[in-house]
Design goal:
10 helices; Rhopdopsin 7-helix transmembrane proteins; mainly alpha; single chain; 2 strands; two-stranded antiparallel sheet
Length: 239
């Protein structure tokens, strides 16, 4: 067993044990959904499904952290692709949910639910297209005595393109979220907006979760982009 993979495996196990029942409960029980519009309900359910899609792949990643990748190249590529579809789907869904609330409150005269539904339908094809590089760059790599399912870039330009895509989608989603709720806060009565416990919890959780979980990842990606663009081997090795 690989002792270096124990801590990440424990973290992923906790994510699996908490996330799978939680998202299934959201899909089946739909807590407090009666207070939400039908469009918001669709977006929340879509977010739960996309999160669940990523979570169900975790047992194989946990095993690979401890004992190496034994599932073959095809499984390596497909599972990575599914994971990226889920991640991009979640990010785009959060951005769309924020934009929908912004349009509904701030620009109600221009709000068109049919167009929002169309964006929701297009969300998954876009996520699938953005995830295609995972099928190309994910390879089986020997790491000491272990076989790993890892990134293997053919050139610096390919690495730069993949890192830029991840970073741009992440930052666009986060800043869409931030902009939308700042505008909502400015538009409606501040006391009404933040004295509503449900709204306050939703806003706080979305912003904090996106910031805490995604900003470190994208900061590393930005450093990776800089290292690749500048051909700084020292920085690349540190990252």
């Amino acid at each position: 067993m690989n002792s270096r993979g124990v801590l990440p495996a424990v973290v992923l196990s906790l994510c699996f044990l908490l996330g799978v029942p939680g998202n299934i409960a959201v899909i089946i029980l739909k807590p407090n959904f009666q207070q939400l519009s039908s469009m918001t309900q669709c977006l929340m359910l879509n977010l739960a499904v996309s999160d669940l899609l990523c979570l169900v792949t975790l047992p194989l990643w946990i095993y690979s952290l401890l004992y190496g990748w034994i599932f073959g190249l095809v499984a390596c590529k497909i599972l990575t692709y599914v994971m990226y579809c889920s991640v991009y789907g979640s990010l785009l869904n959060i951005a769309l949910l924020s934009f929908q609330r912004y349009m509904l409150v701030v620009h109600q005269q221009f709000y068109n639910q049919t167009k929002i539904r169309l964006l929701l339908v297009l969300l998954w094809p876009v996520a699938m297209i953005l995830s295609i590089p995972a099928l190309v760059v994910r390879q089986l790599v020997s790491d000491e005595q272990w076989i790993r399912c890892k990134y293997q870039y053919s050139c610096g330009a390919q690495e730069l393109a993949v890192q830029l895509t991840e970073t741009l989608v992440g930052f666009i989603s986060f800043f869409t979220l931030l902009f939308s709720y700042i505008q909502l806060y400015r538009k409606v009565n501040r006391g009404v907006f933040f004295n509503n416990p449900q709204t306050s919890r939703l806003v706080t959780c979305l912003i904090l979760v996106c910031f805490v979980l995604w900003i470190p990842h994208h900061t590393v990606n930005v450093l990776g982009v800089a290292a690749t663009a500048l051909k700084d081997k020292g920085l690349q090795q540190q990252i």
